[in-house]
Structures are given as C-alpha cells and as structure tokens.
Design goal:
This protein has 177 residues and is of the alpha/beta class. The chain contains four helices and eleven strands, in the order αββββαβαβαβββββ. The chain folds into two domains: 5-123, 3-Layer(aba) Sandwich (Rossmann fold), CATH 3.40.50.300; 132-169, Wheat Germ Agglutinin (Isolectin 2), domain 1 (2-Layer Sandwich), CATH 3.30.60. The strands form four sheets. Strands 4-1-5-6 form a four-stranded parallel sheet, with helices on both faces. Strands 10-9-11 form a three-stranded antiparallel sheet, with no helix packed on it. A two-stranded antiparallel ribbon has the order 2-3. It starts with a helix and ends in an 8-residue tail after the last strand.
Amino acid sequence: MFSGKTSRLIELLERERFAGRKVILFKPEIDTRSVESKVKTHKGAELDATVVRTGKAGVKAIFDVSSDYNVIGIDEAQFWDDDSGLEDTLNKLASMKKIVYVSTLNKDYRGIPFNISEKLLAYADYIYSLTAVCTKCGEEAVFSQRMIDGTSKSGPRIVIGGKEAYQPRCRNCFVTR
C-alpha cells in the first residue's frame, strides 16, 4: 500500500482517454474507502468507476460491459475471488485487442501472495512493480503492515482501510504474526 498503484492506474487511463480511446474503470464493491462510483487515490485524485461484485457474476459483467470500450482498468484486483475467472476474462479481452490495466497488491498483510494477483501477473505483457517508503526506516517498502491502535495486529485476511489500518514496511521492519 501507499506505493501509488491507483495513482499510476488513473494516470495511464487518463493518458489513454487523451489519445481518444474509450476507457472504463472497474472497482470491487468491497472497496468502500471512497464514494461508490469513484476510485480515489491517497492524494485525492479520482476517476469515475463502475462498481462490480468480486465473483463470477461481476467478472461476467466486466466482460459484457467492456465490449463498448477500447481500454479496461481494474483497481484493487486482489479483492476478486480466486475462482472468479478474472484472469481468464482479462486475458480474453486483451486477445480481443483491448488494452487492459490492472492495479493490485501482490501480498497480504502477512506477506502471503494473493492467488488472484499471481494469476494476473502470469498473463501480463508489462509489469510495473511499485514500492512505498517504509514508515519506520525510510527504505523501500514491499510489505503492508496491518496496524490497530499503533500496534501490528493479525486478523481476517481482508480488512478495508488506509493509513489508519496499514503502514508500508521494508523487509527488515516488517513484523510477521
């Protein structure tokens, strides 16, 4: 978290729109951090988004709606169900000459890879791996430390939150639970 994934996604989609392409952005319904029909960055930039479910029905909706667009964006892909078929659908859209951009975390707060992210990476033509800055030492941060009341905490795999719930950490400062 806090590496600029959503900022980069918005930047890429705006660039495609500037080039005259029809763009659509999807976000998972589980992501309640901003207004329902928007994707918003930590710095306040936002873009209109279509909210979809994270299971097979949502993935079907993505495929059906995307036929009218040249460029498809997916934010927070780690929230999609492992068996949703998201990776197959996005691969099919790319094979149909659609431009597909995906923003996702690669690991959860325990440092365990998200299965859906691994599947998506396997299909990607290009991968931009972004890092944050460790809040403890200032080094490159590749982990998201879950924090509750200033202390590292464990719990459910998915907890929606921002800086109140997570801190970027480097490998040396990351605490496993």
